Every structure is written in structure tokens, then in C-alpha cells.
């Protein structure tokens, strides 16, 4: 079917990549990848995606580049290394299972590069805009549909990050005793490491499962230890338990990152299993301290 009154979508390929001595030795794949990244950066700028120093960043995963360029993951990684070596790309690692923030430093242009750019810009002919359609007076029916299929990958990522960033203010997941599991600091900590709200909920569920196991073991042994957090009789003890839990989670994430960065350490493969063991040990130690304090009275 012939489309009328439509314009093709273009990705601009800068001429300095071919004319400037510092960049013309880049592979063709690296040049096209750079053009795609610059195009994505415009969208990020419109949405106000900026790092701590105010610099605009974009998100373009290896999987997306593989699909756009029809290249293998190995080749995409090689292409990104080319751009990094040419100082046209800088990656900022954010966290586990989170896409890197990609920054595009200002290229080192010569006077000839700038002249060519200005000359090309003035040579462009104005594009005739399609005639405006008459505005309908009928009120459109609004359908609420917030499924991920209606958003781009970047939009979904931004929505998830906003929910996770504010999770400490609204999250109210309860355990069997209807006591909130984490304080605001602990919830926000988890939000920084999770990629989606579902992942955050799963992580909290693992902690609840560990707490339930320790409580069941204590009950079978005929021992009683207060593991509630917001119950009327927990008081300051419940607050201290939340604080200690947050510290333990910080140690957990620190251990994962250290194992990744230190070549002399064995990396932690199963993060969920490691979290469960960590939490069981935490609740078990806390309960034993409580029982020993009761016996000493």
C-alpha cells in the first residue's frame, strides 16, 4: 500500500567519522552504532535523563544493538570498545541486572568538520509539511491501558526506576504477623539494586521465607523469640531489628560486588540462594541473642 504525506525516519551519520583523521579508521559498524547512540541520546535529552554531573545519558543495551546492527554479541562488545578507545563513548555501570548508562563525550572536531557541517545545514531544502487535519469536536474515548506493550523499552525502564526509587515511601508488603518487614532505608536500598518492582517483591519474599523458617524451627524447639517488626510489644527492639536487617543487606550486596571485582575471589553465582542463607543466618543469630538475654535476666 502506498503511503502519502509521510516522511521517512532517518538516523544521521556524522561526516567527521569519515573525514576526521582521529575517527575515520573506526569500523563501519562502530560508525553506525555511534549514529544510533546519538539518535537515542536526543530522546534521553527530551526526557531529562541526566547523571549526577548534569550530563545527558542514554540506555542502549547490547541486545538492542545486536538487533539493530544484526551483529553477534561478541562483535557488539568489540564495537563499543572501539568507540570507548576513540573517546566517543563512556559507560557507567549502575548495578546488578541494570543497563549501563551510556555517555557520548564531545568529539574533537577540526575547523573543517565544523565548516562542512554548517555548509550542509544551509544547503538543506525546506520540507513541505502536510496539511493540518480538521480538528474533531468529538471527545475521544480514553482507555486506560498501562501494559508494557504500550511503551518503549526505555520508557518502561524509566517507569520502573521511578517506582523503585520511591518504594521506601509507599511499599507496604506485610508478613504473617502484619508487621512491615523493612524500614524506609532498607526498602530504598533494595530499590537501588532491583530492576523491576516484581524483582523487588521477589527479593522481599526471599527474606520473609527465611524469617518464617527460623520462626518455625524455634517453635519446634519450644523456644520463643520476638521476630516481629511493628507489633505493639516489639517497640525499640523491632526498630533495632529493622536497622540490623538493613546493615545485613548492605553486607550482602557488598559481598556480591567484591566477588565480581576481585579476581582472587570466587564469584557468587546464585544470588537468591546466597540471600536466603544470609537471611536465615541473620534471623537465627538475632533470635539466639534474644534468648540469651532472656536467660541472663
Tell me what the structure shows.
This protein is mostly helical and about 300 residues long. It is about 55% helix and about 0% strand. It has helices spanning about 15-20, 30-45, 60-70, 75-85, 110-120, 155-165, 165-170, 185-195, 195-220, 235-260, 270-295, and strands at about 90, 100-105. A two-stranded antiparallel sheet has the order 1-2. The chain is elongated, with a radius of gyration of 27 Å.
Measured distance between first and last alpha carbons: 86 Å
Order of helices and strands, N to C?
Answer: HHHHEEHHHHHHH
Number of helices: 11
Q: Could you give the count of β-strands? A: 2
The overall pLDDT average reads 78
Over all CA atoms, what is the radius of gyration? 27 Å
Largest sheet: 2 strands, antiparallel
- Outline: elongated
Q: Estimate what percentage of residues fall within beta strands.
A: under 5%
List low-pLDDT spans.
229-235
Major sheet: order of its strands?
Answer: 1-2
| Tally of discrete structural domains | 2
Proportion in helices: 40-55%
Computed structural class? mainly alpha
